[in-house]
TrEMBL record:
Keywords: Membrane, Transmembrane, Transmembrane helix. The chain crosses the membrane at residues 51-73, 163-184. Residues 13-37 are annotated as: Disordered. Residues 48-185 form the Brl1/Brr6 domain. GO terms for cellular component: nuclear membrane. SMART domains: Brr6_like_C_C (SM01042). This is Brl1/Brr6 domain-containing protein. GO terms for biological process: lipid homeostasis; nuclear envelope organization; regulation of transcription by RNA polymerase II. Pfam families: Brr6_like_C_C (PF10104). The lineage of its organism: Eukaryota, Fungi, Dikarya, Ascomycota, Saccharomycotina. One of its GO terms (molecular function) is chromatin binding. It comes from the Eukaryota. The keyword Coiled coil does not apply. It comes from Vanderwaltozyma polyspora (strain ATCC 22028 / DSM 70294 / BCRC 21397 / CBS 2163 / NBRC 10782 / NRRL Y-8283 / UCD 57-17).
Length: 193
């Protein structure tokens, strides 16, 4: 439905309804939205650079988590090995006490007075139950000892300069990569404006 138009230079220019204006505005907006959402990963270098930077940073973080996890896993294996060694050592000690008690005839009716104190020690050793080495206190002590051994062997075998070089190399690599991606985005924005 057309309304009476405005006169310009002896021509009548038809005007549109407000509903027609609203329709054209909404179609313009949809067109702009389609242009924005149709950018693909490969067609927009800025989006590609952001995803590449995100991928790089995720790989760095995952590598760090993997190394820390592996470090604690190997320490756990060492602690488990030491717990087993301690159990074997205690079992052997108890077995040695049993053998000494039997071989020296330490039964109360056969006991020689000179061996009284030794027989009592062997009997105490035999009656000791194998203490559970998986208790929190024992486990914590073994963890601390193992961690101290690992750190001491690491510090002894690597010099301060080597450690500093590795730390600086990793830091510089991460910083330079992130700065490069950031400057690329700035360059991309400046050239597109």
């Amino acid at each position: 439905m057309m309304e009476v138009g405005i006169r310009r230079n002896r021509e009548v220019v038809p005007t549109r309804n407000r509903s027609d204006d609203a329709k054209s505005l909404s179609s313009d907006r949809k067109g702009n939205e389609d242009k924005v959402t149709n950018k693909t990963l490969l067609s927009d270098p800025d989006v590609f650079a952001k995803y590449l930077q995100l991928l790089f940073n995720c790989m760095v973080v995952l590598s760090l988590f993997f190394m820390v996890g592996w470090f604690f896993y190997t320490i756990k294996l060492d602690v488990d090995f030491k717990v087993e060694q301690e159990k074997i050592r205690r079992r052997l000690r108890i077995q040695t006490c049993k053998d000494n008690y039997i071989n020296n005839e330490c039964a109360p009716e056969l006991r020689v007075p000179a061996l009284e104190s030794l027989c009592d020690e062997w009997l105490t050793c035999i009656n000791e139950e194998t203490i559970d080495l998986n208790t929190i206190n024992t486990s914590t002590i073994l963890w601390a000892k193992t961690l101290a051994e690992v750190l001491n062997s690491f510090v002894e075998s690597i010099s301060f300069r080597t450690f500093l070089f590795i730390l600086l190399s990793v830091t510089v690599t991460v910083v330079v990569t992130n700065v490069t991606f950031g400057s690329y985005r700035v360059y991309h924005y400046q050239n597109n404006d």
